[in-house]
Amino acid sequence: MKLVETAEQAKQDPSYLKAVTELIYQLADDDFIISFRGSEWLGLAPHIEEDVAYSSITQNTMGHAVMFYELLEQLGEGKADVLAHERQPKDRKNGCYLEKRNGEGAYHGEPYFDWALAVVRNYFYETFKQIKLEAISDGSYKPLANVAKKALMEQTYHLAHWKMWMKQLQKSTDEAQERMELRIVEAWDEFGDVLELGDCAEDMQRHAIITSSEELKGKWLQEVTNTITNVPNKPLKQIYGNGRNGEHTVDLEQALETFAEVYNSDKTAIW
Amino acid sequence: MYNYVEDGDSKTTAYVEKDQDKYQQFMARIEAGEKIEADDWMPEEYRQALIKLISMHGISEIMGALPEKEWTPKAPTLRRKLGIMAKVQDEMGHGQLLLRVAEDLMKPYGKTREDLIEDLLSGDLKFHNVFHMPTKTWADAGMVGWLVDGAAIMSQTNMLDASYGPYQRALQRICQEEVFHAQHGEAIIMALAEGTEYQRDILQESLNRWWPALLMFFGPSTAATTGSSKQDIMIKYRVRKSTNEELRQAFLDKYLPRVFSLGLTVPDETVHYDKEKQQWIYEQPNWDEFKQIIRNKGPKSKERLRLREIAYENNRWVRQALVPKTVES
Q1: Is-contact A142 A195, C-beta < 8 A?
Q2: Which Pfam family, any one of them, does this sequence belong to (chain B) (predicted)?
């Protein structure tokens, strides 16, 4: 495997550049939107200890997103803040399931958020992120591998946290089991595109930036099916479309509007 | 963030400890600078005043995360977003730390954290006046860090040598983190003060809006103002050192020169420093309004309490799921 040490070196090969850029957009946008949804939970978690833990995880995850956006900046994609704030939904590469609202109600109003959704979503996502980061940390793009190694130091704890919730709630009261099962079955229909690497998947693998999407998916399924009590007996789907191709729901539009509200209020300003 | 909330309703009655020997020993210990621990004997008045103080402090940290939470998703740059996320996480952490301290004190009464949350929702447990206020613009997110946390640092450092050990130790850490919060707030404010006309406008407007709440922050100068004050008891038991007015003066000393040097004004034409009296002269805020605010009749009291209520009700199934099952043999 030929290591690519710097962004400048990556820019020498257009096919390499395209593949690595695409992958980093996916990583950045995934972390960004799930952290955004996580930050909406602040003050609303089941107990104070969880509020402390979840907001710490959300904060770390936003930190990872920032590192990824900065890698894109180095690759000539523009300023990290512009990438985070100004890109239209059609240019966003995050999986659709990650943009889904936290439950019923509204963040600025009456937020009837669902903890079962938070647990299932975060567990599914963090499991895949762990697998992906491990693959990337052995990959050919050195700056990305370094960021992946750094993120993995925190990732282990994030995953352990959500896995603990999965196990506890699935073994608990009937109501908890039912609520969890409902969200697991729902996720089975919606999570599919998160596991994809998009149109450049083959080039990503050919350039040894990451392993094949089939291998990643296989590892994810193995881990997740070991943790779920009743594995849904149906194939994984992506009923909201493929976020890797810029297909998204109104929930992403709402998130981006909120997110960029102050930023857009005076674009000439330095904040 | 924090603070000591005066209880506008209860009447303070003279307290007489039955066990005078123990009481004298206790007073001798705290006067010698010793720390009281959770399992030590303590006068009823001391325990109750601490429970009130620390549970209000803890719950105010938690309620205090809510106004800033409104701006967390909207923070205008990635760096600011990381900053405010870290800050609100700290605040929840302070709340947790303090509730643990309060829980130990409440043990003899058989009361738990559930009781505290229920007291909050029923209005029996008050939270700090500043957290009943609306945050209308991004400048408010800066103002909360800069001046509200700045005021909190003043009132908390006043208790860094508090006679109750568990609280005193928690405060060491809290104060260290609050210093970062104030710097975070100041950085937001500086960017606005040096920014565009729009940015300067929202900054001035925010300061105008927060000014009365900031004056109220330290509580009334004397019990005469609002009917009661616990500050004398807290000083007697060596929990705090300075009076409310001394703290307010120290706050004005520190921050008014900074406010003016940024080209900002405060909405009080009478504000000036009296060199002879060596103190700031200012127009008193409306203390009747203060009493209303801490009785949960402030502009945002209902909404903020409603958020906690929703969280409490909505997550009942999770709490029930976490109760250990009785294993039948």
Answers
A1: no
A2: PaaA_PaaC
Cα B174 to its chain centre, rounded Å, is 12
The alpha carbon of residue A222 is apart from the nearest alpha carbon of chain B, in Å, by 27
Segment A227-256 shows an average pLDDT of 96
State how far the Cα of A92 lies from the Cα of A72, in Å rounded to an integer.
Answer: 14
Query: What is the bridge-based pairing of β-strands B272-274 and A103-105?
Result: unpaired
Widest distance between CA atoms in chain B: 79
Q: What is the pTM of this model?
A: 0.94
Residues of chain A contacting B79 with CB distance shorter than 8 Å: 66
Bridging pattern class, strands A103-105 and A111-113:
antiparallel
Residue A269 belongs to a domain: no
| Angstrom distance (rounded) from CA B71 to CA B135 | 8
Q: Supply the pLDDT for residue B79.
A: 95
Task: Note whether A229 contacts B: Cβ–Cβ < 8 A.
Answer: no
Structural contact between residues A201 and A213, judged by C-beta atoms closer than 8 angstroms: yes
CATH code of A85's domain: 1.20.1260.10
Per-domain residue ranges for chain B?
20-322
CA distance A63 to A83: 15
Determine the residue of chain B that is closest to A49 in CA distance.
Answer: B96
Question: How many folded domains does chain A comprise?
Answer: 1
Give the pLDDT confidence of B129-177 residue by residue, as tens digits.
999 999 999 999 999 999 999 999 999 999 999 999 999 999 999 999 9
A73: in domain: yes
> Which chain B residues have a beta carbon less than 8 Å from that of A47?
315, 319
Residues in A 65-124 with any Cβ partner in B closer than 8 A: 65-66, 69, 80-81, 84-85, 105, 107-108, 110-113, 115
Does the predicted interface ipTM exceed a cut of 0.85? Answer: yes
Which fold is adopted by the domain B20-322? Ferritin (1.20.1260)
CB contact under 8 A, B321 and A52: no
pLDDT above 90 (res B13): no
Average pLDDT of span B217-228: 77
SS3 B87: helix
Q: Do B315 and A42 touch (CB under 8 A)?
A: no
Question: Hey, what are A208's tokens?
Answer: 């040894």
Judging contacts by C-beta atoms under 8 Å, the chain A residues touching residue B191 are 270-271
Give the residue numbers spanning the domain of A55.
Answer: 7-264
Using a CB–CB cutoff of 8 Å, tell me whether A174 touches chain B: no
| Distance of alpha carbon B145 from alpha carbon A143, whole angstroms | 35
Mean of pLDDT over chain B: 92
Q: B289 CB contacts (<8 Å, ≥6 apart)? A: B212
- Per DSSP bridges, beta strands B272-274 and A111-113 are unpaired
| Stretch A109-116: mean pLDDT | 93
Bridge-based pairing of strands A111-113 and B279-281 is: unpaired
What would the pLDDT profile of B235-275 be if each residue is shown by its tens digit?
A: 999 999 999 999 999 999 999 999 999 999 999 999 999 99
**Contact at CB, B319 and A46, closer than 8 angstroms:** yes
Residue B9's pLDDT is what?
A: 46
Cβ-defined contact of B73 to A47 (cutoff 8 Å): no
